[in-house]
Amino acid sequence: MNERARQLLRVDGLTLRYGAGPVVHGISLGVEQGTVAALLGANGAGKSSTLRAIAGLEPAQGRVLFDGRDVSGWSAARRFRLGIVYVPEGRAIVADLTVAENLILGSYYEDARTRGRRREMVLEFFPEIANRLKSPAGLLSGGEQQMLAIGRALMAGPRLLLLDEPSLGLAPLLVARVYERLAAIQKDQNLTALLVEQSFHVAARLAARAWVLRHGHVAGELDAEALRSREGRQRAIDAYLGARQETGHAVHA
Ligand SMILES: Nc1ncnc2c1ncn2[C@@H]1O[C@H](COP(=O)(O)OP(=O)(O)OP(=O)(O)O)[C@@H](O)[C@H]1O
Questions:
Q1: Mind listing the UniProt keywords for this protein, alphabetically (predicted)?
Q2: Phi and psi (nearest 5°) for 207?
Q3: Dist CA 93 CA 145 (whole Å)
Q4: What residue ranges do the domains of the chain occupy?
Q5: Residue 50 and residue 110: Cα distance in Å, rounded?
Q6: 42 lines ligand 1 (CB under 6 A)
Q7: Per-residue pLDDT tens for 194-232?
Q8: Does the beta carbon of 59 lie inside 6 Å of ligand 1?
Q9: Which residue's C-alpha comes closest to atom 16 of ligand 1?
Q10: What is the position in ligand 1's atom list of the atom closest to the CA of 19?
């Protein structure tokens, strides 16, 4: 990893347990400012738990540094105010509120001018929801709900977006569209994000770096070049399947 690049997020030795044994075992990673990184792995590998711990939604051991500040003991609300914004799996929009009201929820504490400016930006990225502002959010399609959830997070002016499986439950064409928009937002807004994905090839299009988790361990690490190469793809598949015993060591491609 290029140590000179500025890491907005640094996680060291993150360990998380729900009951007896840990489900995340001493994970370390860093996300550089202005880049998208991904946590890959099969069901139950510990991806969501890691993301939730970074957001402050699960108690964990280890260190979470944000912009050089140790936020490990901070509540989720305090991390949110610092700019760490989490978009949960399953989207969690408020079905009974309109699309416009859901957007307002994302920037509840901002002044009207900031809110208006951000709303304009969000609607530019997601014209699908721009035409549906007065509809109850529950009537939107799955893809539109995902766009709304991302839009709502952008309304908060995130410095770091934590995206839990934005492709979940979406048809391939919609997944491609959501990822296209994320790429446009990243380019235009210089967004920093950490996302969770099960699909390697979906994440590989956007991410500059990825970690493959397996049974709560980092089983492999891939940089941008490896993410886009056939060899890197094979390496990730091996790590998913545990074909190589790389547990505990970051594998540089
Ligand atoms: N609230 C919870 N209470 C107890 N165990 C949990 C809880 N949440 C997750 N787990 C367990 O922790 C492990 C890691 O789950 P996690 O959701 O982080 O994995 P994941 O890689 O995100 O998988 P998925 O893609 O299926 O969401 C799994 O064995 C899961 O059953």
A1: Amino-acid transport, ATP-binding, Cell membrane, Membrane, Nucleotide-binding, Transport
A2: -80, 145
A3: 7
A4: 1-83+160-253, 93-157
A5: 29
A6: no
A7: 999 988 888 888 999 999 999 999 998 999 888 888 887
A8: no
A9: 46
A10: 4
Task: Tell me the CA–centroid distance for residue 87 and ligand 1, in Å.
Answer: 16
SS3 category, 212? strand
Mean pLDDT of the chain: 87
**Cα 48 to averaged position of ligand 1 atoms, centre (Å):** 7
The stretch 74-99 carries a mean pLDDT of 91
- Distance (angstroms) between ligand 1 centre and the Cα of 45 equals 7
pLDDT single digits (tens) 165-204: 988 888 888 888 888 888 988 888 889 999 999 888 888 8
Q: What is residue 34's predicted lDDT score, i.e. its pLDDT?
A: 94
Cβ proximity of 140 and 129 under 8 Å:
yes
First-last CA distance in the chain = 11
Q: Where are the extended beta strands (E) located within the chain?
A: 7-17, 22-32, 36-40, 61-66, 69-70, 84-87, 160-164, 193-197, 209-214, 217-223
Domain 1-83+160-253, CATH = 3.40.50.300
